[in-house]
Amino acid sequence: MQAQEGPRCMRYTILVVEDTRDTRELIKATLELEGYRVLEAENGLDALDRARRDRPDAILMEMSLPFIDGYKATKQLRQEPGLTAVPIIACTAHNRWEWLSAKATSSRESFNENISSATYWSSILIG
Predict the structure, then answer these.
(1) Residue 1 vs residues 8, 40, 124: alpha-carbon distances, Å
(2) What share of the chain is helix, strand, coil (3-state, %, to 5)?
(3) Averaged over 31-56, what is the pLDDT?
(4) CATH number among 3.30.565.10, 3.90.190.20, 3.40.50.2300, 3.40.50.150, domain 7-126
(5) Cβ-contact 63, 55 below 8 angstroms
(6) Are strands 37-41 and 58-62 parallel, antiparallel or unpaired?
(7) Domain spans of the chain, in order of start
(8) Dihedral through CA 80, CA 81, CA 85, CA 89, nearest 10?
(9) Closest CA to 13 of 55, 57, 46
(10) Burial class of 57 by CB neighbour count within 10 A (0 to 12, 13 to 18, 19+)
(11) Which has more pLDDT, 126 or 48?
(12) Burial classification of residue 106, based on how many CB atoms lie within 10 Å of its CB (0-12 exposed, 13-18 middle, 19 or more buried)
C-alpha cells in the first residue's frame, strides 16, 4: 500500500504521544500511509518539548503517561502561545469515567476544555 501524496494530507503534522512503542509505531504507520507527517513522543515531558519545538497541527495524546500524564501535558500546552488552538485528542485504554474519577484534582468541565472533541479532529483529518 502506498502513501497518499495529495496536498490535503501532506500539509498536516501530527504528534503521536504514546508510551507503548508497538502502539505508537502502529499509529504512526497508519497515519503515514494516509500521507501525514508524524512526530513521536513517549512521555508527557517529551510531548511538551516536541510540541513546543515542532508546532504540530494536531496531537494524539495518551492519557496515562510517565513523568507527566496526558491531562497535565494538555493543560500546559493550552497555556503555550501558538499551541492553544491545536486539536488534542485524548487516547486511553482506560474507561473514561474511571479515569476521570481517578483524577480527583480535575473536573469533567476542565477536562473537556483542554481536550478537543473527536468530531473536530475528524473534520481536520477528513476535511
Answers:
(1) 18, 22, 23
(2) 45, 15, 40
(3) 94
(4) 3.40.50.2300
(5) no
(6) unpaired
(7) 7-126
(8) -20
(9) 57
(10) middle
(11) 48
(12) middle
Exposed e or buried b per residue across 22-42, where buried means at least 16 C-beta atoms within 10 angstroms of its C-beta? eebeebbeebeebbbbbbbbb
What pLDDT, on the 0 to 100 scale, is given for residue 69?
87
Q: Taking the mean position of all CA atoms in its chain, how far away is CA 126?
A: 16
| Beta strand residue intervals within 1-127, DSSP E | 13-17, 37-41, 58-62, 88-91
**pLDDT of the residue at 105:** 41
Count of C-beta atoms within a 10 Å radius of residue 61 = 28
The pLDDT tens digits of the residues spanning 45-91 come to 999 999 999 999 999 998 888 888 888 899 899 999 999 889 998 88
Look up the pTM and report it: 0.71
Query: pLDDT digits over 102-112, tens only?
Result: 554 444 444 44
